[in-house]
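Final report, section 2: Outcomes. Of the targets proposed, Heme exporter protein B is the one most frequently requested by collaborating groups, and we therefore present its record in full.
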Amino acid sequence: MSVWSAFIQLIRRDLVLALRRRSELANPILFFVMVIVLFPLGIGAEPNLLARMAPGIVWVSALLAALLSMDAIFRSDFEDGTLEQLLLSAQPLPVLILAKVSAHWLVTGLPLLIVAPLLAVFLGMSETALGALLISLALGTPVLSLIGTIGVALTVGLRRGGVILSLLVLPLYVPVLIFGASMVDSAATGLSFSGQIYILAAFLALALSLAPVAAASALRISLS
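The predicted structure is given below as tokens.
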């Protein structure tokens, strides 16, 4: 089997398994929606205030939803022994990890992109900022998944790895959060946001290049 065929087959397998666990599939989306809907109740339904806070609210909610679903990337494979088979596979392990991250983003990040504009309108975000929001999430959420994969690979063998995972990846998530929210805020105020696009694109390129290799090394350490 070629590397490309193995890549596609692994994505297809993870998507089928995710569809069989629909309750787990819905958890990040429900969490994302609930956090955003609860913000107006907590700070008051002031349209101008909500509109100013909308970029940060959406991005923080997306970050926490992505973190909530991170542990599922390798957990089931670790429990049923599939992860060890991936380590012994003839295919490059970073490519297989990239396939798993791609499948994870398709079942968590892509639904966030679909739901986010509706919730942004609910918060009073302007039309000019909606396009910037979609671009920022399209560039930023894959970075969150790639960075989170390294933390998951390091903690996959731990019983209570969720807290450690949060401590590991949250500091690395902060730059993505800052530039993603700043990009939407700049668009809402009529300023240019091309600089933030380039920075997020650079983050994505670095994450695609380095994260699978780092996660492969982390998995070998965790399972050795």
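The chain has nine helices and no strands.
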